[in-house]
Design goal:
Layout lengths: L1 E6 L1 H7 L3 E5 L6 H12 L19 E5 L2 E2 L12 E6 L5
Parallel strand pairs: 1-5
Antiparallel strand pairs: 1-2, 3-4, 3-5
Amino acid sequence: MKVKVVFTGLLRRYIGEKEVEMELPDKATAKSLAEEVARLYRESLPENLFAQGMESFYRAVRVARRGESLRDLEEELREGDEIIFLTRLAGG
C-alpha cells in the first residue's frame, strides 16, 4: 500500500523533504512506518530524536492521521493515508 508522509518542523528541516510517498506492506502500522522513517533518515537526524537503541523515535516525535494524533501506534494504516510526523517543541 502507498501512504503519503508529511514532515513538519525540525523533521522537515533535517530531512530536507516536505513530503514523500512510501510503499508499505499490507497491514502496516503507524509504529512500523515510524520505524521505517527512522531507518531511512537516521543519517540526517540528530540522535536526541531517537529512543534508546535508535530503532524508533523518542516520544517528542508525534504521528498524526487526518489531523488527529495517533495514540495507538499499533493501529493499521490504510491505502492513501496521509501521515504527519510532528516534533514537540519546548518553550517557556
